[in-house]
User: Fold these one by one.
Assistant:
Number 1:
Amino acid sequence: MWIISARTKITLMKLYTDATFTWQKYAKTDDKILKGKICIIAEDNAEHPLNVIEEVVVGKVEGLKQYINIYELIAVARAIELAKEKGWDDIQIFTDSSVAKTWANKGVSATPFTEAHRSCQEYITRVKMEHSGKIEIGHVLRDQNPAGKLLEIELEKSKL
């Protein structure tokens, strides 16, 4: 939900994020680059459209198998970037990843802490500092996340 002031400026925009990555696709390959997808959608998509699905690449780190949280955090950071591009000052971002929510609010605390984690932490820190408005990052249940639903549709299309 968004609120309109007397000057018709949006004072709060709610964004939803999600990500997908399948480790099994890369587990037995020599690929050095792993591909996942992120999705960002605005709650008020009719009045203020934002409906983004992007492919994201992350460098493969020896021994690391848990990449989904990195992709989820990238989705949150990208949502902040897109909000800035749209001129939306105060934003609420909802993710269905409790790990991404915690990392976005308190910093990445992964074990092992790899180069991929460090890069992701720098990215979220930078975009938060560059955004002039208020940023709140919260949790949404998976079945109530419109970004997750849109990403599921996209994945089904790619199977055809």
Note: The first helix runs from residue 68 to 86.
Number 2:
Amino acid sequence: MDIDINRLATLAKLQLTDEEKAMLESQLPSIIEYIGKLAEVDTSSVDPKAYLTNAVNVLREDVVTSTVDERDAVVAAFPKQVGGAMEVPGVFAS
């Protein structure tokens, strides 16, 4: 089995060292062959819905539990505040 490790790494957006490429080049064919053996497993007696549940709606209703006083106490306890809100470090560089 001939596998282009460089193309595979590019498609997977992986940056591999030469050592990692060499290791994958030797191991990947046997991994793929082993995975191919799964196609030989007889699953005809397995119900395709065996792992589904009867849960319809596992979400809960949104219920407001905080009061303005609690919010103000949390903001007041925060190290940096601006205009009655908490100031946190920026995520994106300027």
Note: The longest strand covers residues 81-82.
Number 3:
Amino acid sequence: MTLAQQIYLSIFALQHIRGTIYSPFPGWGMLHVNHLAQTVKFMIEHLTPDTVFKCLSDETRARMTLLIASEGELCVCELTTALEESQPKVSRHLSQLRSCAILEDRRQGQWVYYRLHPHLPDWVHDVLQVILNANKRWLSPDAERLERMRDRPGRATACG
């Protein structure tokens, strides 16, 4: 299935889940979705080291990307707890990482979860893994806060 078809099916599924003909992209047909998919594909295929490092040059973005790479997927509330940052700041940085095609989000009810973009080139995954392995101590306070959050009985209500 092409990326365009995946996006189109996601929009179609969203419409049926909500039981309406609501579209997050009013008036968009397959042509528009195909253009969006081609844009994302172009961004990922032309992801260069300077782009990746610019996206990760901010400490907050670097920390959240490494946490997500380590955990696989995290929601906004988990990141705000782990990083001890406000939700607007975390959301702004997540938006920047999404626009760089480093991260992808998915919605589940009112919650938004972030993961590494599934079409990231292998070399980006390799770089992130090397950075993770070499900097466990730097990231450990964030990882410990995240782990403590998981031990709390209220986690299910805090993060959906």
Note: The first strand starts at residue 74 and ends at 75.
